Amino acid sequence: MRICRKCATCCVAPDISALGKPAGVPCPHLAEDLTCRIYATRPAVCRGYRPDELCDAIAAPTLEERVARYLHLFGLDQAEP
């Protein structure tokens, strides 16, 4: 079992439809210290997230780099036509 790195990539990179948050945009509940301001009442999708091999695949020193790697991995870094 992997342990959460508390890197906040999962709060920025994927879309979170329960919050109307598009991919690549920080969650409106993400605090500056990369913690969740609504942790106790966060949506089920956030509660159910568990760190996995994807966390290892996108590991990088900065949040910006981790998000870019995530978006690239899923082909979401393509410019809109």
Describe the structure.
This protein is an all-alpha fold and 81 residues long. It has one domain (9-73). It has three helices and no strands. The longest helix is centred in the last third of the chain and has 11 residues, at 63-73. It starts with 43 loop residues before the first helix and ends in an 8-residue tail after the last helix. The model has no long low-confidence stretch (mean pLDDT 92).
Give the topology:
Blueprint: H1 44-48, H2 53-57, H3 63-73
What radius of gyration results from the CA coordinates? 12 Å
Q: Give the averaged pLDDT, no decimals.
A: 92
Q: What spatial form do the alpha-carbon principal axes imply?
A: globular
Q: Roughly how many Å apart are the termini?
A: 40 Å
Q: What is the string of helix and strand elements?
A: HHH
Count of distinct structural domains: 1
How many strand elements?
0
